[in-house]
Design a protein that fits this description.
Distance between the termini: 32 Å
Radius of gyration: 17 Å
Shape: globular
Low-confidence stretches: none
Structural class: alpha+beta
Order of helices and strands: EEEHEHHHH
Number of domains: 2
Oligomer: single chain
Number of strands: 4
């Protein structure tokens, strides 16, 4: 699976730019405007942008280099506060999973039962809440 290697995040007048490349690509990093991040920044400000970048890093991103724009996220991901918040939400997600029957757990990646669907919605909501709480730590 390819990861997104991120070595710089820049906010300009016309949007948010990210210098990145795919891990399976040997070409150099290139900077491009990220429309989704630009829209979120315009709508929600720095907190929304931080939440989405944390989400991106958690899903498929790897921070590279020492630029100050990525260092703040690296510092967050190595902090005790991050570990505490992450553990709190992982416990909530695991507790919700533990309420599912065997049939429900088997259905999650096939055709989810109503209870499995509810779990997936709960998990996604908890992850978004976790990303927001982590973004607040950067403020």
């Amino acid at each position: 699976m390819s990861m997104t290697l991120i070595n710089r995040i820049t906010i300009k007048k016309n949007g948010v730019y990210m210098s990145c490349r795919c891990s399976n690509d040997s070409r150099p990093y290139r900077s491009c405007r990220i429309n989704s991040l630009s829209d979120i920044y315009k709508k929600e400000g720095q907190l929304g942008l931080d939440r989405e970048i944390i989400n991106l890093i958690a899903d498929c991103g790897v921070l590279k280099g020492n630029h100050k724009s990525v260092q703040r996220y690296r510092d967050l991901f190595t902090s005790q506060q991050y570990k505490d918040v992450r553990n709190k939400f992982l416990k909530l997600i695991n507790d919700a999973y533990g309420l599912l029957s065997k049939e429900d757990t088997f259905s999650i990646w096939r055709k989810p039962t109503p209870k499995a669907e509810n779990y997936l919605n709960t998990k996604n909501a908890l992850l978004q809440e976790m990303y927001t709480e982590l973004a607040k730590l950067l403020s």
